[in-house]
């Protein structure tokens, strides 16, 4: 019996299903979470299906969250989508249910849950949700609402099909999803749009970017800067990929100050593997896209020094292969 069959059997067994995802969500987190919720509501109209977690104003066009009472967890199945480790799960009640399932595409460094399905080769958790539908022997079916949300998740986590994780299977699934009745061009428009304040923050990043000759780069965005520009912490996420437009940038991070004056570190790379670096600083993620934390500016400088070393090492290795 496959893991997909086990997951389907758990879904069939529970009358209440509560779906979580990670904090500070991206399109794949919300797309996989709410896309799965739409699929389950259509397949099991008699069940109570909830999607929970903190709201993200910039992604409300995909879907919004629900508020539920603690008592709903007592006899519930909890499914956590797109979340590598338990500290990152949005809404800490995830462990209050009767059974817990993890569905993810990040490296399985934190093997939590009664059932775990992780495919680190998948482009996104949204892609995995479509595969779950395919493996359900007709019990689960895609619909227009779910297709839009899952397509948004795939487009978001592949960088509009730019990243190496985009496989032939990814394109097949994307083609299947756009056959449903939603305006897929508007999904891409949403992904591409920024506010005037966010555009100004992008200019700020270019103006304040530290970039060495080998291609390691970083920028710091303070609470004061965000307040001055009228940008929220969630909206600051729009500038994470900004240095990647530079030919000279090989790997970089954006350090965004948090209300507690620590920093959220957004790491990205065009080649050097960065997730082990992220793990050293209370984070993790994909080889080329990860997140971490820094307590202060001193730790930011430490992370940059380590990133410089990674970029330098890869350059030396590449030169040795030529």
Layout: helices, strands, pairs:
Layout: H1 3-13, E1 16-20, H2 27-43, E2 48-51, E3 76-81, E4 99-104, E5 115-118, H3 125-134, H4 144-157, H5 168-178, H6 184-192, H7 196-208, E6 210-211, E7 216-221, H8 223-229, E8 251-257, E9 263-269, H9 275-279, E10 284-285, E11 289-294, H10 297-321
Parallel strand pairs: 1-2, 1-3, 3-4, 4-5, 7-8
Antiparallel strand pairs: 6-7, 8-9, 9-11, 10-11
Helix pairs in contact: 2-3, 2-4, 3-4, 4-5, 4-6
Specify the number of helices.
Answer: 10
List SSEs in N-to-C order. HEHEEEEHHHHHEEHEEHEEH
The level-1 CATH class of the largest domain = Alpha Beta
Ranges where pLDDT stays below 50 over 5 or more residues in a row are: none
Mean pLDDT: 95
Major sheet attributes: 6 strands, mixed
Structural class: alpha/beta
Identify the strand order in the major beta sheet. Answer: 6-7-8-9-11-10
- Quaternary structure annotation: single chain
Give Rg in angstroms: 20 Å
The CATH architecture classification of the largest domain is Alpha-Beta Complex
Q: Any idea of the CATH topology of the largest domain?
A: inorganic pyrophosphatase (n-terminal core)
Beta content:
15-25%
Number of strands: 11
- Could you give the distance between the termini? 47 Å
């Amino acid at each position: 019996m496959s893991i997909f069959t086990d997951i389907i059997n758990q879904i069939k067994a529970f009358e209440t299903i509560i779906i979580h995802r990670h904090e500070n969500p991206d399109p794949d987190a919300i797309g996989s979470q709410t896309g799965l919720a739409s699929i389950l509501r259509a397949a099991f109209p008699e069940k109570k299906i909830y999607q929970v977690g903190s709201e993200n104003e910039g992604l409300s066009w995909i879907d919004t969250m629900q508020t539920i009472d603690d008592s709903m967890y007592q006899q519930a199945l909890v499914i956590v989508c797109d979340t590598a480790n338990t500290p990152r799960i949005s809404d800490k009640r995830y462990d209050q249910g009767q059974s817990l399932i993890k569905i993810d595409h990040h490296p399985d460094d934190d093997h939590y849950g009664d059932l775990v399905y992780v495919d680190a080769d998948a482009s996104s958790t949204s892609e995995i949700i479509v595969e779950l539908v395919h493996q359900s022997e007709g019990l689960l079916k895609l619909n227009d609402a779910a297709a839009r949300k899952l397509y948004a998740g795939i487009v978001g986590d592949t960088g509009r099909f730019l990243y190496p994780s985009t496989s032939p299977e990814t394109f097949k699934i994307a083609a299947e999803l756009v056959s449903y009745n939603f305006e897929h061009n508007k999904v891409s428009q949403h992904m591409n749009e920024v506010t005037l304040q966010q555009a100004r923050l992008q200019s700020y990043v270019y103006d304040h970017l530290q970039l060495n000759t080998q291609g390691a780069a970083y920028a710091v965005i303070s609470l004061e800067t965000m307040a001055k520009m009228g940008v929220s912490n969630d909206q600051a996420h729009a500038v994470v990929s900004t240095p990647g437009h530079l030919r000279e940038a090989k790997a970089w991070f954006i350090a965004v100050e948090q209300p507690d004056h620590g920093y959220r570190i957004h790491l990205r790379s065009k080649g050097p593997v960065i997730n082990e670096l992220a793990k050293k600083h209370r984070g993790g993620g994909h080889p080329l896209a990860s997140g971490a934390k820094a307590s202060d500016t001193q730790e930011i400088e430490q992370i940059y020094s380590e990133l410089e070393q990674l970029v330098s090492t890869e350059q030396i290795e590449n030169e040795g292969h030529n």
